[in-house]
Structures are given as C-alpha cells and as structure tokens.
Amino acid sequence: MTAEVAPLSGSRCQAPRCMSRAGRADAKAGSSSGAMARGSARRARVPGSGVPGSRVGGRGAQGPRLGPEARVPARAEYRLPGAHPRAPGAWLPSGARTRPARLAGVGVAGEGAESPGPTGSCLVPEAGPSSAVAPARGAGPPDARRPLPAAWQHPFLNVFRHFRVDEWKRSAKQGDVAVVTDKTLKGAVYRIRGSVSAANYIQLPKNSTQSLGLTGRYLYVLFRPLPNKHFVIHLDVSTEDNQVIRVSFSNLFKEFKSTATRLQFPFVLEARTPQRDLVGLVPHGARWTFLQLDLQDILLVYLNRRYGHLKSVRLCASLLVRNLYTSDLCFEPAISGAPWAKLPVTPMPREMAFPVPKGESWHDRYVHVRFPSDSLKVPSKPMEKSGSPPEAVLLGPGPHPLPCPVASSKPVRFSVSPVVQTPSPTASSQAPLAPRPFPEVSLSQERSEASNADGPRFHSLEPWARVKASDVHTAAAGTHVLTHESTEVPVAFEDAGSCKRFLPDPILRLKGVIGFGGHSTRQALWTPDGTAVVYPCHAVIVVLLVDTGEQRFFLGHTDKVSALALDGSGSLLASAQARTPSVIRLWDFQTGRCLCVFQSPVHVVCSLSFSDSGALLCGVGKDRHGRTMVVAWGTGQVGLGGEVVVLAKAHTDFDVQAFRVTFFDETRMASCGQGSVRLWRLRGRALRSCPVDLGEHHVLQFTDLAFKQARDGCPEPSAAMLFVCSRSGHILEIDCQCMVVRHARRLLPTQTLGGPHPQKQTFSTGPGIAISSLSLSPAMCAVGSADGYLRLWPLDFSSVLLEAEHEGPVSSVCVSPDGLRVLSATSSGHLGFLDTPSRVYHMLARSHTAPVLALATEQRRGQLATVSQDRTVRIWDLATLQQLYDFTSSEEAPCTVTFHPTRPIFFCGFSSGAVRSFSLEAAEVLVEHTCHQGAITGLTATPDGRLLFSSCSRGSLAQYNCADPQWHVLRVAADMVWPDAPASPSTLAVSRDGRLLAFVGPSRHTVTVMGSASLDELLRVDIGTLDLASGRLDSAMAVCFGPAALGHLLVSTSSNRVMVLDAASGRIIRELPGVHPEPCSSLMLSEDARFLLMAAGRAVKVWDYTTQANPGPQVYIGHSEPVQAVTFSPDQQQVLSAGDAIFLWDILATTESDQRFPGPSPACEAGLGTGQLEDAASRASELPRQQVPKPSQASPPRLGICARPPEGGDGTSDTKNSGAPRTTCPASHKAFTPARASRGPHSAKGTSLPPASSEWLRLKAVVGYSGNGRANMVWRPDTGFFAYTCGRLVVVEDLHSGAQQHWPGHPAEISTLALSHSAQVLASASGRSSTTDHCQIRVWDVSGGLCQHLISHHSTTVLALAFSPDDRLLVTLGDHDGRTLALWGTATYDLVSSTRLPEPVHGVAFNPWDAGELACVGQGTVTFWLLQQRGADISLQVHREQVPETVGAGELTSLCYGAPPLLYCGTSSGQVCVWDTRAGRCFLSWEADDGGIGLLLCSSSRLVSGSSTGRLRLWAVGPVSELRCKGSGARSSSVFMERELVLDGAVVSASFDGSVDMGVVGTRAGTLWFISWAEGTSTRLISGHRSKVNEVVFGPGESHCATCGEDGSVRVWALASMELVIQFQVLNQSCLCLAWSPRCCGRPEQQRLAAGYGDGSLRIFSVSRTAMELKMHPHPVALTTVTFSTDGQTVLSGDKDGLVAVSHSRTGMTFRVLSDHQGAAISTICVTRKECEDLGVEGTDLWLAASGDQRVSVWASDWLRNRCELVDWLSFPMPATTETQGHLPPSLAAFCPWDGALLMYVGPGFNKEVIIYDLSQKQVVEKIPLPFFAMSLSLSPGTRLLALGFAECMLRLVDCATGTAQDFAGHNNAVHLCRFTPSARLLFTAACNEILVWEVSGR
Predict the structure, then answer these.
(1) What digits encode the pLDDT tens for the residues 1096-1145?
(2) How far apart are CA 1848 and CA 1836, in angstroms?
(3) Cβ atoms 402, 437 nearer than 8 A
(4) Which helix (H) or strand (E) holds 229?
(5) What does the pLDDT look like over 911-966, one tens digit per residue?
(6) Is residue 1523 within a helix (H) or strand (E), and if so which, with residue range?
C-alpha cells in the first residue's frame, strides 16, 4: 500500500520512489506519490515544482509567527507546576476569562474541573505522656518528615483512649455501632454488627487524608467475633519509603492474596469437632481473642519492606472490640502483674489484661493469636538482591496461600494466616486433623515426617534451623504446661543430605522475557539517550538495549501495565496498571528502585505524560462512573523522599485518546479524541481547558498528537505548533497560540503504476488511511497507519522520505531523541525500529497476541516451541529469544506441541483432533494423522524418539511409530484418558528411560501407568480420597516422572496436593500438601531430582525436592495471568514459564558434587558436565567480536499449519523421499533438492517422438524460473547473454525483445550453470534420472545453441560448476551424498582428476588471479587445492584450514575471491569471514546477516552477500586489504553496509557487472530480479507461480490469459509477450480452479474471473477494474472446478465432496445444489451451447460433470427458467489396482468441439485409452489407445487435435481425424494441465509451477 498526501479539494499526483524492503517491515525511500495542499493557509507555488497548493519550506517559509509573549520564561530556580505566570494570550483566547473560585484554593474550570483540598493533615495527640510529639508521616505536604519514635507511645499506647473514640471527633463510625456491656470482661465494649461489613465500622482517624502516626511495632486487638457472622479488620500501614500497604484480616477470605499494595489474610476459626469449616462463619462459643500483630515482620516477610508507622485502622462488622494498643514490647497475655517481673518475659499490663477467675487458666477462657509466627526467623532488614532493585522481590520468593492451616487455642506461630480454635462439647485432646504449614516444635524435638509448607522462606547460615522454645505450650493430660526457658532448641534434620539448605534464596533470577504489550501495544518509549527502548510486557516493564539485546526489568506490578511515561532527563519512570482501581508506580529509572506507589482516583489509567523536568505527571482515564478524568500530580519531591501530591483533577465530557504535557512549558497540555482537540493549562490548583476551533474537522476521530520541536537556532515560540492525526487519515497542524487549524492534510491510498515493481497494483480500501500514531523530530514527522506502514515525511509533507511495511496495523511510533531512529509497534505484537541513515529495519521483539497454552524445548538446536490461543505455533531461539518460525492456523486451534528428540521435527495437536508433524528444515507439514475425534489434550514422545503418544478430549490414546518415515499409527485405544482433562504439557508423561507411560484416566480419580511399547496396563492408582475442605473426591490433574533411578511418579491433585508415588508399586512415598489454593496444572522435576517446578496460578514455585522435611517452596510472581506451563531448559540451567508471556529464569544454584540419588541418571551421563559448560562459556567470553551495524531481523518463515500432505492413501503419507537417510545440510544453503525421478518418455512402449522437421508443436515460451537450483542463472553485461533454467530446459532470453531460445536435452532437472570467461561456452548439470546411472553435464556452444559435449562422472547431483580463469579447466562438485570433486580439461572435456572428499562441501571457486589454485568450503574447514601439471598429468595438493572459533558455530556455505590474496567465505549462521590465502589464516569476521549466507560476489572494494532470509546487501570492503597486516587483531568496524534490498525469497543465484553496480539475482521463490545499486531498486524480470499451477483460462479476445496456483494468486498475463499484467492475491488460501466469463456475457470491460479456493469460497474478480466484485461461499469444503454458463450469468462449481452448486454471478446467491456425485470429488465441469436437438430434453446449455468415482453425468439446463434435466449417466469400470506412479489418475471428460453429440473421457480403467461416447446413440463409438494413464486433457476448438498430459513428464498430441500421434518432452514433472487457446494456435501445459507455451503448427 502506498500513500499520498492529498489536498482536501485537490487532485493527486505521483512521483517515482525507491523501495528497499527490510524483513517483514519494509523500508522504502524516495519521494512520495502525492501532492500536498493546506486546508486554510494561503496557497503558494514552488518554483519549478508545478504542484499547486505547496508552499516554500525551510527557514524561509512564510507563515504565522509566534510572538515573544509565548516564550517560556527562563527558569533560574524550580517552581511547582501551576506557579508560572500565564503568558498573555499564549493558550486562552483573549476574550476568555476564568470564573471566580467558589472555595479558597479550588479553581473552577470550564470543563468541570475539581481540585482536592489539602492533601493531608497531621493528626497528633492533644495530650500524652510526653511532650515529644511528632507529626504523622505521610499525611502532610510533600516535605513532611518521618515521625520520630515518640516517647509518649512507650511503653504502650491505648488507642481508643488517646483518640477519644467515644467523642467521635477524631474517629468515625458508620452503621450499627453501639457501646454494650460484656459479661465476660465485665466492662463496656463496642459492638459493630450488620449484614454488610463495609457499611458498619469504626475508623481511626476520621479522614483518610489524616494519619495516626503510631510507630509501635506490635498492634494488639482485643476483640470477639460474633457467632455465625463475618468480620473484617483493615490496617493501613506506611513503609519507610512512604508506600501505604493495606493489611486485611477476615474470615470472609478463602485464601491468602498478595499484591504490591495489599495483603489479605484469611482468619481461620475452628470448632473442635471432626467436621468443621476451615474458613467461614464464626462458630458458636467464640471466645475473646488477644490478636497480636507484628507489623514489622508482616511487611518484612511478605513484601520485603521496612515498617514505618500505622496510618489508619478500620474495624468492620461483625465483632465486639474492647480496645486497640500499640507498643514496641512483646507482651505475654497470660502473664500479668508484679510476680512475673523477674521472668524473661514481658507480662501484660493490667490495663490490657483479660480478667481470669481464680483457679482457672487464661487459655481456657481466651485465645491468643500471634502473627506472624516466631518460627519465621527474619532478618532485621529487607533482603538485598545483588544487581536487582528492592522491588524485584515481587518476582522473587514470596508467600502464597495455603488451604487454610488450622491451629489450636495455644499460641499460633506456624501459619500464614491467623487461626483460632473454639471449644466444642465433643472436643477431645487429640491433635488437629488438618495439616500444618510448618512442623510443630515441642521440647522433645518431635517433627512431622510429612512436614511441608508454603510460606515465606528465610534461612539462617547455620546447618540447622533454630526455633525459640519460649512460650511453646505442650498438651499433657489436658492441661497446659508453660515453660519459661528462653534457650534456643536446635532442630536436627532427618538425614545428613538434607542439611544443605535451599540456597541461594532466591534461586531463580529473571533473565529474559518474550512478549510485548498485554493491555495495549501503544506503550513504547525511547530513553533520552536513544540507546534503549522501554515497553511493557503484561505486568513487567522491560528496558531493552537495542544494540546488545540485553534486557533489564522493573518488577512490582501485579496486573497488566496500561500506561508508561518517562521524564526528559531519563531519571523518573511512571507506570500504571490496568486493574481497577489503578495503581501508579514511580521508579528511579537508573537504579530500578520503586520510589513511590499510590492509588489513582482514575479507575483505569490509559495515558500518562511527564513534564520535561519530571516535576509534573498527568494521567487520563475513566472514573467509576465512566466519565473521563484528567489528574495532575506533583512529583518533584519524590526523589528527595517526599510524596506525590495531587495538584488538580478535572472531569470532561469529551473523549481523550491522547494527552501530552508540552516540553516548553510545564503548565501547558493538549489532548485529542473523538471530535475534539483541547488545550489545557494548570493554574493554581485547577486544570482548565479550551477547545480548538476545528471547523469542518470537528467530526473526526483523533488518535494521537505531538508538538513541533524547534530547530537549533530557531525562535522558541515556533514550537507551539501541534500536530494531530485521525482515523480518517487527516493530519492537522494547529497553532496553539491562536487556537486555529493552520494546515489540514490527508493521507489517501493510491495505485502505484511505476516504481521498482511496475507490475504490482494495489487497491483503495476506503476514503483515507487510518493514522493511529505520529511522532515529531525537528526535521520530520513519523506516521503509523492502519495499513501497516510507517512513513517518514518532512514537516511540510511535500514527499515521503522513507516508509516501512509491517505485518499488521501500526499502533505506535516514536522518534528517538537524535531523530535517527523511529520506533514502531504493531497491534500484532511486533516491536522494532527503522534506522534512517542505513534504511534498515531492526526487529526488537515479537509476541503472541493471546495467552500461551503449552511449550516444548529442543536440546540440540536450543529451540523453544510455543502454542498460543492466537492460533499460532512459534519456534524461538533460546539463546537470543528471537523468533525463528511462525506457523499459523486459521481453521483450527493448536493445543499442544512437542519436539522430536533427535530430528529437526516437531509435532502439534489441534482442536480438530489432527496431529501433524512439521519439518523445521523445510518449514512444511510432513505427516497428518486424524485418528482422534476430539481436541488433542496431550502429546509426548519417548526420549529415544521411537514412539509418540497423543490423547484427546474424548478419552482416546494413540501410539505412533516415529522410527518409520511414514509415522504410522500403531494403536488407538478408546476410553483410556480422562475425557475432560484440560490440554496441558503434563497430561501425558513418559519416564526418563522411555519404558513407562502415565496419564490420568480412565476417570479423574485414577492414574494409569502403562508400558510405552506394548500399552499393557502395569498399574492403576486410585487417588479418590475425600477432600474435607470441598466435600468432594480428590481427582488427579497432572502427572510427571522423576529420574529413572528414583522411580518416582508425581501426581498433582484437585485438593492442592502433590503425591509422590512409587512408579512400580503405586505406594505413596511422600506427600506435599497445600502446594497452592488452585490445582497445579503443570509440574516438572529436574534431571538431578533436586528441584521441583510447579505452575501455581499466576506464580511459579520451586521446591527443594531432595529435602524430605523442607520448609516450603520459593514463589516467583510476575505473570499477570495463570501460568499454563513450566519446564527446565535442555541444559537444566534455566527455567521457562509460559502464560501471558514467556519468562526465562536463570537457576542461580550450582550443581553440588555431593548431590546424589541411587544410581546414575542416563540423561545426565549423556551431556556435558557443569564444568565443561562453564569452560565452554568462558572460552566463548574470551573472544569478543566487533560487529558492523547489525542488519535487520528477517521475518520468520510462515506456513499455514492447516496445510495438509498430498492427497492419497490414509492421509499419513510422507512428503519427503523415503528410503535411506541422507546427509543433510543447513537450510541456508540447501538450495537444490532433486525432483522425484520420473520415467522418461523413451522408456515406455508406444511413444512416438516426431522428427524435428514435422513436429506439430514448437516450444514458444517458458514461464517461470527454477528457484530450486543453485547458481542456475548467468548474465554477461558486455555481450547481453542471459540464460537461466526452468526444469530440464536451459532458457536463453533476450532482455530487450523478450525472445527466448530453449536448449533441451537434460533427462532431469538442471541444478546449476556456469559460463566461461570468454562467454563462448555454457556448462549445465542436472540431477540423476531413472534411466541413467550418472548425472549429465552438457557443454553448449553459446553462439549456435548446440550441445558440443556430453560428459558424466558424478553419481549424485552436481552442486557446482566453475571454469578456471584461463578457461582451460572445468571443476565439478558433487552434492553432500556424492562428495566428489572432478577436474575436466576443456580441450577435449576428458576427466583429468577426481577425488572423494572426506566431508560435504558446499561450494568451489577458482582463484581469478591464479589458475592453479581453487578453494572449497564445507563443514568447519576451508580446503585449498594447488594444481601441479607435469606434462599431460595434473595432480592436486591439498591444504586444509580449520575455521577459528571466533567465527562461531555453523558451516561455511559460500565463497568468492576478492583482491589478492583475500578469500571471502559465508557461513550458515550469517557470518562473513575473510582469509589470507597466502598465510592460510582467517583474520577478520563480521555478522553480515541473521540467515545463512548462500551467495557472495566481490569486486575490488565491494562485496555482495545474499542470504536465506532474502536480503541482498552491498558491503564496502576496501579497507579489508589493509586490515590483513593486523592479523587476528583486525576489527570489522571499517566494514560497513552501503545498501540493502530484501527480495521475495532466499538468494540462490546472482550475476553482476564488473563494478557490482547492477546485476540479476534469482531467488528460491522462482523470481529473477534486476538490481540497480545506484538507484536502490529491484525490478522483477522473470516471475512465475511459487507452487503448483492449477488452471489456465483465456479471455474471449485471446489477448490475455489467466492462471491460478496453490500460492493463492490469480495472475493475468498478456498472451503475446507473457508479461504479468494483474495479480490478485488471497493470503493463506490455495486457488484451486479458475474460469473466465464468456464473450457473450457483455462488453469487454465487463470481463470477469471466477476463482475457487480451498476454504470453499468463490470470488468474482473484475479484470477491467482490477478489483474483487463478489465473494460467495457456496461450498463447505474446497472447490475443485468452476465454470460459467454460456451466457455468463451463472456459475457452476464443484467441490471435493461431490456437490455441484449453481449460483448467480451477479448476486452470489446459490439457487441449486446437485448431490448426484456426492462422495467423490468433482474433477471437471464442462459447459457448451446445446446444438444437438435429438437428445429429448429442453435447454440452452449442455453441461457435464465428472467425478473421481469414474462417473459422468450430462445435463441440459436453462438457468433463466431454473430448468435442469439429466440427459445421460455414464459409469466406467476401474480395476482394483491402477498403474499411476503414486498418482491416482483423474476422471476427465469434455464435449467434442467439432461434434456436439460426442464427449471424450479419460480416467483409470482396465485399459489406457481415450473413450469417445455418442450422446445421440447412447454408446461408445471409438477408443484411442494411450501409452500411460492421462493426467490432463484438452481438445482443440479449431482442429481435431487432442492433447493429453502424462505423469511420465510427457505430452501427447493426437490427430483424431487421422489417428496419428506425436509425443513431446520438456517438463520435469507430471503434466497435470494442458489447455488449447480458443483459436487453437497455442497450447499451454503445466507441470508443478512451470508453464510451457507451445505453438501449434498450421494444420
């Protein structure tokens, strides 16, 4: 799509432009095709331009100037926003006046602005024990200081008395709150009750803006919950860094929840009965509770923060409360009074004590809850993570909930949530039934064997844990015995191996994130220095260094980040998360530390904007009523320890899509949205706004805005220009001073008639191109639009400077501060930037657009496969986190994925029940199985790769034989797997030795273990125990095997347990209870059985599996959605988790040598040890490599994953060659794959090859180029000789006239060409055919076009040919199987020398400066050959050099000689290395591409490289010769890229002139391009279909023809020149059939094409208007044939299910469906005008339909009268077997054009023949024998000629008048299509994607 900037009432004009594509995002340079006009400015004329409506740009441009009054005053000192004096007339119109304020300090704006009152006040005591009163922290202005430890709060503080709760002046009550007398306490208490807790409460202090300022560490709450009710206690606690944390306790809560600003604890009350509700209503008999909360430890343990002070308390219904106390002392409630003063405990003050009658125990009457537990030995300060900000703890270990742990009425110390037990009449002294999160510790040091926990982890450095024994109560005979010793009791572990602590803590560290966006893809920013990009990935903020690819993270958000803003200095970052109410975080950008967290009054913040100094932050969003709100915060004191201050708030009824603070005045802002552009100003404490007069543009939907930046030296007021864009394509330039639109421009689609691709045409899809974003620099404007283009314009929009095409709509653009790079993001999850100096687009990040469902890793290549709800399967490189492949599906959703353990193949299961295997080398579908009826839920393979297993949602289990190339299904067992099991990586599990298979089934309550080879059931374990919490039977959720030596099978259950079973006996070995409140869907055990990995909700948990009595897991938070899959990397050094995004974690623990379990692990023995890996890593780190500017990343290859293998068989046929395995080579240089060997025409009896003088056919033209070859195109600029290959033909073409010569003779597809230096001899080589034992090499005389010599020596395909510089020798190189190098003398073309190479070689070249030297490149070596001639004998001396490690992994794939003595070599990994041939060493290398380098060409100072990614690059290598003297110390910084072009496929051939200024390049897509580096253009010379051609049709005037192919294209060609005129392309669909409307359907301009596609759709295209007129969907399955009726008003179409649909061509309505052939695919429909009147039926048309079951039906129809009658029904017999070379011959029929009563039929039968049937006589009248079964059929309208194509690559022409026949060869594949033109002068034949045009001699 190209664009023009058009005047609102003017005309368009076009200008040529230069295009340079970069990956999927195409960078284009040149002038724009479009004229420009201003909407309201004066018109001027540019001298010489001829473009009306333009004005002179540059500094001399005349226009409105901004006066000096609009300048920003110089700021000698800082002022708060709003304190600047308003410049007269700068933003508000001169007549505008502000209304008087109603309240002091509150400004009233025209938009209903509001400003809060004082941001806080200090609530201090009026009187107290001491005069040392400090103001409360966090309640005052930004410079309020932290409250000092006040003496008046010691030793304790009675909160109710101090704040005089009974007066309700400094406290508040709501609802049913009353003072009552309690009989137990014998005093007054407060009763709070009500059905709604939130509406009945006591709150201290009265206002939320005030603060209690209580600094005591402990808070004591004396309360009693009311029976059968719920209660809630809210505490607002402030940290030392001024963050307010809401801590809540309630029996309403079912589980523990934690966010950055909230902690929610369930308060468990237990009745002493066997049946009890762990969480819920308060039971009867609830007692008074002494709740002791350690606020310091709560913050430290659960959030890793320092406690500051208690800000507020809210006690909500329903409960009785006596009082609140704070203190720094830890009181013992059961001890009070003087008698206990000498004991090492602190007795309870009498004021706080509960009354205890004499003779009774305190614990019998009351409950003491201490939280958190003393057993959690926490450090005295927050843990500091090395290299990580303090906020990183949220992604580190953190507490996560347990299934409501229960404790007795003794002091509760070991639970994550406070628990209370109440007495029951039936209570006994037995221990509680529910498991505890931590082991009970008694004086006898007894421990629970199955002690498991899920809580915070803090470890001491001692080899054993120490738990204080003070205040520990033991039950003895029903009495409580109190021990007073304060000694520390060491707790010994059960075995010595468990003494190793779970260190380090944390054990995981986030290394990389794959993903972008989440809430929106509009948030992406440059850092002020332009070296990094900041963007959100769901809940994580990523900072990506664009040059190195390194990532660092801002961690702390618990939901998706909705907005980002960075101040001008790059010191302050603001981020908002999407969850309501929105929370905003301010970060120190340099250190990553979170400075402040505060809650926004806006429920969902959609936009943030900083002022340039960072002192003002503005946010926009919706309030709870859905109204738009703008909030301004003062952030200037945050970095100094102050707080954020709300300066002003304003509501507006206008839509706001974008909001910006100006960079030149911090009190000025602008916003845009639906129908409005408004200018804002902050003055005092009010936000005011005024609209811009938009005039006729007031109805536009504006999307983004940007302020014009002043150039250096220009007056500053010029910056007050605002650019606004809209969805209709408008760009308005607004004068902010006068508040008017100065210029209005519009971006319109246009058709490109010229340019580098003259044949390409585009179509307008609307009146304007929707613009989603724009960004300005002082020199240009970057515009991102919905058509997928990023365009760069000058500020006068005179011509487009550069444009880049993306795969999806561009959602955001941002120009870097230096103006040299433009960041762009798309709605499809792509993020990259365009480097304007080099015109290269760099891809930074790709992302799934929906949650990831499953993942799998591959060990050998280090790859990761992911499956997502966005219907894609993506392959990633684990080392670089870059995407390699992208497989898409539009019809069905992928569910599961797994790699083949040893081959470059992966398997994927789909929702349709299909299981497909994909080749990573060919990027195609290999095999498909459809044995399942439901969606695939599990997929796994044995470690040796011999067996594959799959399960589906209907319970079936399938076993496949992966050792067989066909991947046959071995067994399918029904009702084996739990039918309702969710798709999960842990649904099926195979043991590490491959002998066992485990799964959940046949019911959810059982786990079955089978033998993997026999599928014999070995074990069935019933886990259906009663879950007391839910009252339901337990069910299994996921399974996982441990190492084979352990024999463990791990099962996660719905009751939140993980059971460890003996895989042989089913015995329970151990159990991990309460792993998470939600069932674990994925778990994985490391190969050394050290770590257990779990997906637990939105967290990842890591357990120390080796410790039997471990203290719990480490919890890692960061995902904003549930984690779907977790796994270890193949090297066990990293952890991968997938959910909303893909996280890669480093495992910080080192492998311990003493970590052992019985028996070695086979998996560990096979790989490198840790030391070896570390050594390898260290060696790699010692070799840094200088890089040239990195090229752009190519878009990964795409494949529709619904593509299926070829039809036939059971649907499981292999698309690759079967037989012995072949030596493979990297895909980057695997350019030639020999086609299937076919039997030639000479090998069959009955063939008739005519003499050349009497041939009926003469080959006229060839359409296509063999992109399958390598170096199979030659061009010599000085002589104009141009030759290329197409199948078995050498095509010599005149580039000026287009005339072709064809040199036939090869028996197989030609693989390569070579032209001698004298340009007199051409050598061509082909693959091996079925009729020859050796490959054929032909030597042609260029001048005469005759074959002079025919030589053969290689038994496999010839990969390369090369002539020596003096043309005396010819070298030939065999492929990777043959490995033969042969040398021929060109005098007689006798074999001079031949040698067998030790390894595959990928290229060979002679030294142009020395005819006696040639070089070969291959697997890690360069081989130099020296030719020594002694008389007539020539000997070869070999010298081999290893590729140094600095070049990196990969094979050498290409080579070329440069200036002597340089040799350039390309590698499969994208490197180019330079060798000194004299010294035999490599002295320089650089990264030239990220795909394999398949081609290199060099002149003296310029090098051309072509890669598998389609990039063609021109390098300046002049200084390389000077670097040779520096040796290995040479740096590649002097090598730079001059130009780049991105073509449509991998580069396989190229020829350039001597200066490398222009040349011809061939690609694997079958296209030849003319390259001009001077103009930066690529022009298509030769082009054909990329895949099989399915149909050829002709226009009525025979001036044009049309073809369709499986590549989804419909192409219209000029018949005289075979030039491509029009192309219609439908993505991700195959065009299977085509028809051209007949002449009588209307005028020539009404000619139309009907095309049928694989999805069952039928499209009508207008040839004259080059547009699609109609799309209909008459079939549910793929169409196979289509044709028009004789009048062109009706379309008949057939599908593969045998249905024939009849539809109106104008309306698209299908009015008749014929199902007579149902069950067999319709192969052809033929329509003719009814001429025979003796058929006994009425109608205007006679038509037939032939189907694959050898049936032909003949019909007479009159569609205008809706009549259709059957005339005849023909059935032809077919034997059980048919000779077809793997193809089932089709059933074809056609009416005879010279006799309307005859029809001809060919198809499978007992005999190979053509059957002629007479409709009048109802009988067969003639049979014509054939040598083979026909694959295609065509009848000549003018002459009695019959053309037939065969699978044996042969074409036969039969003269039906004389019965004679002639056979013709030329195709390389089965001739599946042949069509005569209406005049019978030409015959078109097609084989695969090659089209031959034959001229029929006059007969």
Answers:
(1) 888 888 888 877 655 578 888 888 888 989 999 888 888 999 988 999 98
(2) 22
(3) yes
(4) none
(5) 999 999 998 888 888 888 988 989 999 999 998 888 999 999 888 999 998 887 77
(6) helix 1520-1523
Instruction: Compute the distance between CA of residue 976 and CA of residue 958 in angstroms, rounded to an integer.
Output: 10
Antiparallel, parallel or unpaired: β 244-250 and 262-266: parallel
Residue 856: both structure tokens together = 């799998």
The Cα–Cα gap between 601 and 582 comes to 8
CA distances for 1651 relative to 610, 1636, 1669, 1842, 1878, angstroms: 55, 9, 12, 26, 20
* Pairing verdict, β 367-371 and 289-294: parallel
C-alpha distance across the termini of the chain, in Å: 49
> Which contiguous run of DSSP H or E holds residue 362?
helix 362-365
pLDDT tens digits, 452-484: 333 333 332 222 222 232 333 333 333 232 223
Backbone φ, ψ for residue 258 (5° rounding): -140, 130
Note the pLDDT tens digit of each residue in 557-577. Answer: 888 899 999 998 888 999 998
Give the three-class secondary structure for 1089.
Answer: coil
The pTM of the whole model exceeds 0.85: no
pLDDT of residue 1569: 93
Partners of 1413 in beta bridges: 1426
Strands 802-805 and 1006-1011: unpaired
Q: How far is CA 698 from CA 674, 680, 730, 1536, 1703, in A?
A: 8, 18, 12, 50, 45
Joined together, the tokens standing for residue 851 give 């949650």
Phi, psi (degrees; rounded to nearest 5) at 1504: -110, 130
Structure tokens at 1445: 């490690």
DSSP-derived secondary structure letter, 1166? H
Exposure of 1207 in the CB half-sphere (CA atoms within 13 A): 9
- Euclidean distance between CA atoms 1634 and 745, whole angstroms: 42
In this structure, which long-range contacts are made by residues 1456-1461, counting pairs with CB atoms below 8 Å and at least 24 apart in sequence?
A: 1456/1405, 1456/1496, 1456/1497, 1456/1498, 1456/1503, 1457/1405, 1457/1406, 1457/1407, 1457/1408, 1457/1409, 1457/1415, 1457/1498, 1458/1498, 1458/1500, 1458/1503, 1458/1517, 1458/1520, 1459/1500, 1459/1501, 1459/1521, 1460/1409, 1461/1524
Q: What DSSP state is assigned to residue 1179? A: H
Q: Report long-range pairs for 1856-1863 (Cβ below 8 Å, ≥24 apart).
A: 1856/1824, 1859/1824, 1860/1248, 1861/1248, 1862/1248, 1862/1249, 1862/1250, 1862/1255, 1862/1256, 1862/1257, 1863/1241, 1863/1247, 1863/1248, 1863/1249, 1863/1250, 1863/1827
Helix (H, G, I), strand (E, B) or coil at 152: helix
pLDDT at 1172 over 80: no
Average pLDDT, the chain: 76
Q: What is the pLDDT of residues 1491-1546, one digit of tens each?
A: 899 999 998 789 999 999 999 999 999 888 888 776 655 666 778 889 999 998 89
Could you give the strand order of the β-sheet that contains 540-545, starting from the edge strand earlier in sequence? 525-526, 532-537, 540-545, 551-554
**What pLDDT is attached to residue 1528?**
58
Confidence of residue 1732 (pLDDT cuts 50, 70, 90): low
| Locus of tokens 């001692």 | 462
Residue among 852, 843, 856 at smallest CA distance from 882: 843
Residue type, 508: L
Give DSSP secondary structure letters for 105-149.
Answer: TB---TT-EE--S-S------SS-S-S---PPTTSSSTTPPPPP-
Q: Taking every pair of C-alpha atoms in the chain, what is the biggest distance, in angstroms?
A: 133
Distance, in Å, from the CA atom of 737 to the CA atom of 72, rounded to the nearest integer, reads 13
**CA-to-CA separations, 1676 to 1127, 1206, 1513, 1703, 1709, in angstroms, rounded:** 41, 20, 46, 15, 15
Confidence of residue 301 (pLDDT cuts 50, 70, 90): confident
